[in-house]
Target: Tellurite resistance protein tehA
Amino acid sequence: MKRFDSILEDTDLIDYKLDQTRCRSLNSLATGTKGAAEQQSDTSTISISMPPTPSSKGVGFNEIYSQTSTPRGTTTTQNNKRISSYSQTSTPRGTVFPESPKLPRSNTNKLKDTRFDSFKTWSGRLERQLSALRGKEQEPISQPSPHIETIPVDRYFDALEGPELDTLRASEEIILPEDRKWPFLLRFPISSFGICLGVSSQAIMWKNLATSASTNFLHVSLKANLGLWCISAALMIIISFVYALKFIFYFEAVRREYYHPIRVNFFFAPFISLLFLALGVPTSITQHLHTSLWYILMFPIFCLELKLYGQWMSGGQRRLSKVANPSNHLSIVGNFVGALLGASMGLKEGPIFFFAVGLAHYIVMFVTLYQRLPTNDTLPKELHPVFFLFVAAPSVASMAWTTIQGSFDHGSRIAYFIALFLYFSLAVRINFFRGFKFSLAWWAYTFPMTGAAIATIKYSLVVTNLVTKCLAIILCGLSTLTVTGLLVTTIIHAFVLRDLFPNDIAIAISKRPKTTRKWYLGSSHSKDIDQYLKFVDSFQAKDIEASITHPNSSN
Model:
């Protein structure tokens, strides 16, 4: 209607004539339809954002009308310039909404996923230096994440469950995203060194088959030892390199694995693998190793034992009765393997020292694991192969004592018979190792089985008969078939199926538990509510007490 809700004067209405085409253009923009927008004339194309409903406040037809009209005292040239500038960014023909402007290349880098930055403790500065060398634009330095803090050990027990402490409780949450697969380095666990343990122990076994007098009738060539040793050395280099990258770029993840009460045992695996490589070195490469190598390899094992055994003995949350697990055998086996290598080099006191330390802690741990003092929980099926670690320590201890004493005496036979009995007691339980998904825990089969086979070869040198020779051949064959099958299966799962390394939930727990507040009427919280009401303003208190009936009062 004319002059209804209008601020324009009559002269402006007379001077300005709104043609029929412009009215259709304004109506099409207000309704957002496509057909009406195509009917706009080229001279009157104006991109105006209108509210879809009349509920928006402060926006009406008068504002559009006033913007399109020519104010008094101005020329139409200025309005034409303004309209032309609007037309340049207007909606193209055939579309309803204008296209979003393309962001510069530098701005798109800021949209990358930064949810994993809390684990990049040392890599932030290194990545910026590498980017600077490549000539890339530097991103602003972000503040350190509050998640980079040392997690106390009791937090692992509160947030995780299961014998291996690798399952998140239902009431907890992790600090890394659950909706996507994490970077490979974050999913690469320290337990991957179990592959090196299995393959390098095979090199020792085939070296003994080729050089032992009791197995000369097999005519085993030393080339098998050379090939296995080269493969194990290559695996050791590759896995160590990958984990070194994780140490550099995701140091927080490595630190969390180290503080994990179960994962800390696997930090012995790299050094035990190096000891195996030293024991299985082919004679074509070298026949005598320098004794300094033994001190270099045993020093980190000694440092780890000082920390771990001290925690077992001192008590607290990391006491042995609480963290006891078959994986603890890895921290014990290193003593016996080191004693075996040192005695083979001609050393005396050092090997006896580590043998005594390993024997004392093995007895305590063996009893603790048999009783299952922590929770009396059984291991899940995926971790049943870890039980074969029971065989590793006594079998290696028998060989170490044989090398120290120079003969397979009664002490060596006692340790060997314990290992042989544990081996048979696990082997007859076939259903115990069936019906579960493949994982890295399967590599726990290989190294203890190979140790028992090598100890049997040593025993057949003393007790030479058909039974001992057949037993040595059977155990060596089973060990070889197991390692070969697991190596092929691991390659398939790692490179074909790509499901070998799932998200490592155990390293992504938060420092503090998830806080939830629950209120229940009639519970102990009612006392707190009554205490609070005493200090409320009298007027408010009367209103609250009048509207709420105490649960203990009669109706």
